[in-house]
């Protein structure tokens, strides 16, 4: 079997991390969303929302981390590696806020390609705000639109994961790979 590096994408609060956690529990190799870690580290330095206050710095840190995740995933002994959010997410979020970004952002999207991309749709019933998630549900819908546009721009076929139980969502994903 050829190595598959699979990315789960979707706006905030669509259930990505829940699915990643369940995949880990089932023994799959998974890489978590790194933006929470970047945000928490900034908060410890006194910056409440690094993405809002210094979006380019935040995005540079995310891009670097996501490239490393992609490269590390390629070295894993497992045939299948799941990643919570991908490199094009960085561009989608910068487009969402309307900020410019350096050319190496787009070059990274072109160079590092995921095998499959599963997108989780906005789901208001499970949506929650917390200390790292500042967006309201309406903003999450707009972010979702940017994610779809960005991934399609880089040639990805998006596989939409239906709104369902965690178990059924996992089975759907595993059936598609």
TrEMBL record:
InterPro entries assigned to the protein according to its UniProt record, in alphabetical order: NadR/Ttd14_AAA_dom, P-loop_NTPase
The organism's place on the tree of life at top rank: Bacteria
Gene Ontology MF terms in the entry: ATP binding
DNA-binding is among the record's keywords: no
Keywords of this entry: ATP-binding, Nucleotide-binding
Pfam family name, one: AAA_28
SUPFAM superfamilies: P-loop containing nucleoside triphosphate hydrolases
Keyword Nucleotide-binding: yes
Residue span, NadR/Ttd14 AAA domain: 6-169
Protein name listed in UniProt: ATP-binding protein
Organism in which the protein naturally occurs: Flavobacterium psychroterrae
Higher taxonomy: Bacteria, Pseudomonadati, Bacteroidota, Flavobacteriia, Flavobacteriales
